[in-house]
Write a structure and sequence with these properties.
Strand 3, helix 5 and strand 4 form a beta-alpha-beta unit. Helix 6 packs parallel to helix 7. The chain has 252 residues and is α/β, with parallel strands linked by helices. It is 50% helix and 14% strand. It starts with a helix and ends with a helix. The protein is globular. A 7-stranded mixed β-sheet has the order 1-7-6-2-5-3-4, sandwiched between helices.
């Protein structure tokens, strides 16, 4: 029994190393390709860089033995521009969402990620939003800028839990994104990702498996007066959370 456990651990460790190398190589090749095209493309670079990342993501998932199924994609296609509220289980959530969503979309990134070689360059050049949590005044200014860009048609992925879940259950929400949605006046599409936490956990070894991605019906948002924003954002947060819990509990 102990020998079988040890063998399983060794195989899991080898698989984790194999997948880590595959992601690193794919990321590096994607970066080189983006660098090349940056010399000849002058407009909409961010959308183009994000679009050409999809074949690399698909390839790594394929050679890693990871399958992705998507439900409710029609809810996204029925909207001009949206904000997606998703649960957060793993670092794998973002590439899976980028792969599944059929148009240009951005997410928030921590300031520290800009220090990571290649990744920081990609975050900036793909047009993702960087927020410095250690400087609240700068963060507020950044959120105002994001709100303005959403009103002009940019799409946004937000993880209202604020951090990755260790258990797979949907944790408490932070209210900030719902204030942003109210100010921008765009619908929120609830989204639930399952399986990424088992395949690429916050701590521990990786393993192959199936990822399920489910999008719910858009939740309309109406702009309100400043004095009503707190109550309205709490109500909106409750509606979105209930929709996500319903998606999580629905048989696929």
């Amino acid at each position: 029994m102990i020998k079988l456990q040890f063998l399983f651990y060794v195989l899991s460790a080898l698989y984790t190393g194999y997948v880590a190398i595959a992601w690193s190589l794919a990321f590096f090749l994607h970066h080189l390709l983006c660098r090349f095209f940056s010399l000849v493309i002058w407009k909409n670079k961010g959308a183009f860089y994000l679009r050409i990342s999809k074949p690399f993501i698909q390839f790594v998932l394929f050679i890693s033995g990871v399958k992705v199924t998507v439900k409710g994609l029609d809810h996204l296609l029925s909207q001009d521009h949206i904000m997606i509220a998703s649960n957060h289980q793993s670092l794998l959530d973002i590439p899976i969402l980028i792969l599944a969503i059929p148009y240009y979309i951005n997410f928030f990134a921590k300031q520290d990620l800009l220090k990571v070689p290649l990744l920081g360059w990609d975050i900036l050049n793909q047009g993702h939003f960087v927020v410095n949590r250690d400087r609240p005044k700068a963060a507020v200014k950044q959120l105002n800028m994001v709100c303005s860009m959403i009103k002009k048609g940019r799409n946004l992925i937000v993880f209202p839990e604020g951090t990755r879940s260790r258990t797979g259950s949907i944790g408490p929400f932070k209210r900030g994104m719902f204030l942003l949605a109210l100010q921008a006046g765009v619908p929120i599409i609830p989204c639930v990702v399952s399986g990424t936490g088992n395949i690429m956990p916050k701590t521990g070894l990786m393993k192959p498996g199936t990822i399920k991605l489910s999008f719910g019906s858009p939740i309309s948002v109406e702009q309100v007066e400043k004095s009503q924003e707190k109550q309205a954002s709490l109500h909106l947060m409750t509606r979105v959370r209930e929709a996500m819990l319903s998606l999580q509990n629905t048989e696929y």
